[in-house]
Amino acid sequence: MNHDPIDEAADAKDAGASDNSPLRHRRIRSFVTRAGRVSVGQQRAIDELGPRYVVPYAPQVADWGAVFGREAPRVLEIGFGMGATTAEIAAARPGDDFIGVEVHEPGVGALLKLIGEQGLGNIRILQHDAVEVLEHMIAPDSLDGVHIYFPDPWHKARHHKRRLIQPKFVAQLVARIKPGGYIHLATDWQNYAEQMLDVLSAEPALENTADGYAPRPDFRPVTKFERRGLRLGHGVWDLMFRRR
Question: Which of the residues 129, 152, 188, 238 is marked catalytic?
């Protein structure tokens, strides 16, 4: 997901939270709640294509073979933003199936619009918190890959606990990836890249496919957001780990 500026209300909440406040013990979530306007085209895509390509959340393991109508390598993408990268990867890898998780309706509508325009039959969307999707709808040892691109960096030090890539979450991911399957992360925040590398390196069921950070794999396109950052001299770090 291409991260948005942090909601300053979150700062105020943290500033007023005592050590005994429930805010101190909130669970990790895969998203930041923020408003967004759904365009006419996105709404049309939601209305027309949503019933076919959006999978309703349910607290039980989904039969993904039935959902896609075939058995194929299966990749989970968490936080696909406006969906352009997801669509490009799915178009280039027609033999693989992609489960995209995103809570924000404009992004869901945008990806549905791309699915319709490009005739992409190998994407399904869940508009729900990815942590709960992972816990309840994905069977152990069933994923061939996981993509998490540019998750919210929560750049202030006191917010680092809100970052998605934490040991417990990575352990949950690993449990649902087949042996030999991969986790591919990308971020444009060096501090978060360092944390990602530390967390993934500390997970005993994972091995790094590179010496530190990985070169950007050919299948991950460079986004407009990323290209702009590179022009401004910002770094981008990819990590590619494989389950043992």
Answer: 152
Active site residue 152: yes
Q: What are the boundaries of each domain within the chain? A: 53-243
Q: Is residue 152 a contact partner of residue 32, using CB atoms and an 8 Å limit?
A: yes
For the CA atoms of the chain, what is the radius of gyration? 18
Superfamily of domain 53-243: Vaccinia Virus protein VP39 (3.40.50.150)
Reference 35, options 2, 80, 4, 1; nearest CA is 4
Amino acid at 168: K
Confirm if 102 and 1 have CB atoms less than 8 A apart: yes
User: pLDDT per residue over 27-82, tens digit each?
Assistant: 555 555 555 799 999 999 999 999 999 999 999 999 999 999 999 999 999 999 99
> pLDDT digits over 121-179, tens only?
999 999 999 999 999 999 999 999 999 999 999 989 898 999 999 999 999 999 999 99
Contact status, residue 122 vs residue 68, Cβ threshold 8 Å: yes
Helix (H, G, I), strand (E, B) or coil at 87: helix
**pLDDT at 10 > cutoff 70:** no
Q: CB neighbours of 213 closer than 8 A, spacing ≥ 6?
A: 193, 197, 237, 238, 239
pTM of the model: 0.85
- C-alpha 169/C-alpha 167 separation (Å) is 6
- Measured distance CA(242)–CA(244) in Å, rounded: 6
Encoding tokens for residue 181? 């399957």
